[in-house]
Amino acid sequence: MTLSLPLLPLDDLATRVAGPVLAGDDPRVPAEVAAFNLTHTPRPAAVVGATCTADVAADVRFAADRGRSVSVQSTGHGLVSDLAGSVLITTRRMAEVTVDPVARTARVGAGVRWAQVIEAAAPYGLAPLNGSSSHVGVVGYTLGGGLGPMARRYGFAADHVRSVRLVTADGTVRDVDAQSDPDLFWALRGGKGNFGVVTELEFDLMPVARLYGGGIFFPGAAAAELLHTYRTWVDTLPEETTTSIALLRLPPLPALPEPLRGQFVVHLRVAHLGTAEEGAALLAPMRAVAPPIMDMVGEIPYAAVDSIHMDPTDPMPTWERGATLRELPAAAVDELLAIAGPGVEVPLIMVELRHLGGAAGRPARVPNAVAGRDAAFTLFALGPMAGPLAETMPAITQSVVDRMRPWAGRGPLLNFLGVAGADRVARIWDDADLMRLLGVKERLDPGDVFRWGHALLARR
Q1: pLDDT at site 458
Q2: What would the pLDDT profile of 227-276 be if each residue is shown by its tens digit?
Q3: What is the C-alpha separation between 56 and 392, in angstroms, rounded?
Q4: What pTM does this model have?
């Protein structure tokens, strides 16, 4: 049941913020809280469309004073619940982007998407450490770690954050960096939204204007040979090369190229930070495995980075589950094919492996709470949550993770976790890091105001 807030306090809040303040039953709420993942429909008690840090601070104080929890949403890519009873802050109006080409940094507001940063940085020959889709919001992605197409060369996006502005549970605005509050700065970069509402981020940009990259679609019949070749091929790659491979069951949609509609295919993704000649030579062993259906790898401007993964851009209801793998021996590939390979009747959209290592496997120059650096690969399963599949898909995606458990690492990367309770979230970190995170949480949010998403203390 959605809780309601008294009208008078909302009227009072509306006088203290510049953005819209809506009761949960206001007819404008669905448009305000529309999310990318349609599995969950947000049902907050009230919504504040924040326009600035002061709006966020007023809203947090309002909610905390009334014993309400606070949730935050930019694009809704990471929505993992219906947020029932919370006071939801939407940040899409906070869309400022400032690039300093001399310092090679960007400073962004809480509602900025990666596409805006890519566009702003490109004229200076610079690029951010965005993920596989530029439609994702910067802040949530980065606070959860941030694994993108240049990860093996530059590490996680969180590794390159310079400063954070956030509002903590008492409504205080804090500017945090490695000197001002080392423990909080450590926790924010990898601990996601457990400690406050981040309203601005400053981070490094990379000197990248172009790359050799794209995707190759292979016929599904070649999946076994492709995966077995891939698991050994990645050991030959330099850190300048970041790759992934996915088993895709594509729907028969007119928007897809005709050769891919309704097909089971293998999608190899490549991003090489070197010359086209170097990249082609590195890619040759995979290209030799089977004739491609479509080969779209070539030299591209960084602004075309979305063409590597070709992630969908239309909202849809999905369920996801992730894990890390410490190794990928032949037996693990055979098991993955038995779960989701060609000929297996399973309603999954995608089962994906991303190759880690390189800079993603080393500690950040300024230590942070990003977990999973000892993993060799990520494993990610994604399925539709429509019709009768809405009841079975959670178990189906979990079964993929369970079957790969003999080769699993400690836990998934936080951004690849999917829906999970606090106990499963906590298992991502080792005991020392978890205790440090909980210490920061207890210091800054003892009342558990921020209990949504991948929260450490929620429901404990």
Answers
A1: 64
A2: 999 999 999 999 999 999 999 999 998 988 999 999 999 999 999 999 99
A3: 38
A4: 0.95
CA angle in degrees (0–180, nearest 5) for 266-269-273: 160
- Outline which parts of the chain fall under CATH 3.30.465.10: 97-207
User: CA nearest 440: which of 65, 207, 168, 124?
Assistant: 168
What local confidence, expressed as pLDDT, does residue 26 receive? 93
How do 264-272 and 241-249 pair as beta strands? antiparallel
DSSP H helices, 210-329, are 223-233, 276-287, 306-309
**Amino acid making up residue 184:** L
Structure-model confidence comparison of residues 82 and 379, the more confident one: 379
Q: Out of 3.90.1200.10, 3.30.43.10, 3.40.190.10, 3.40.190.150, which CATH number does the structure's domain 7-90 have?
A: 3.30.43.10
Question: Are the C-beta atoms of residues 151 and 328 closer than 8 Å to each other?
Answer: no
Whether pLDDT at 4 is above 60? no
- DSSP run (H or E) holding 414: none
Task: Identify the weakest region by mean pLDDT among 61-75, 232-246, 346-360.
Answer: 61-75
- Show Cβ contacts of residue 176 under 8 Å, excluding neighbours closer than 6 positions: 163, 164, 165, 166, 184, 185, 188
- What are the backbone dihedrals phi and psi of residue 67, each rounded to the nearest 5 degrees, phi first? 70, 20
With CA atoms as reference, report the closest residue to 309 among 347, 341, 340, 270.
Answer: 270
Third-level CATH fold of 210-416: Vanillyl-alcohol Oxidase; Chain A, domain 3 (3.40.462)
What is the C-alpha to C-alpha distance for residues 166 and 401, in angstroms, rounded to an integer?
Answer: 35
Q: Which residue has the tokens 């869309």?
A: 95
Has residue 122 got a pLDDT over 70? Answer: yes
Q: Is the pLDDT of residue 1 over 80?
A: no
- From CA 328, how far away is CA 159, in angstroms rounded? 26
Number of H helices, E strands in the chain: 14, 17
Mean pLDDT of 295-313: 97
Crossing angle between the packed helical segments 53-65 and 7-14, to the nearest 10 degrees: 160
User: Mapping DSSP to helix (H, G, I), strand (E, B) and coil, where does residue 121 land?
Assistant: helix
Residues of the chain with CATH 3.40.462.20: 210-416
Report how far residue 297's alpha carbon sits from residue 79's, in angstroms, rounded to the nearest whole number: 32
Between CA 256 and CA 231 the distance in angstroms is 28
- The single residue listed with the structure tokens 């075309």 is 304
Q: How many CB atoms lie within 10 A of CB 295?
A: 15
Q: How far apart are the first and last CA of the chain?
A: 21
Q: Which residue in 459, 413, 435, 407 sits closest to 156, CA to CA?
A: 413
CATH class for the region spanning 97-207:
alpha beta
Cite the residue boundaries of each domain of the chain with CATH code 3.30.43.10.
7-90
Q: Give the model's pLDDT for residue 7.
A: 47
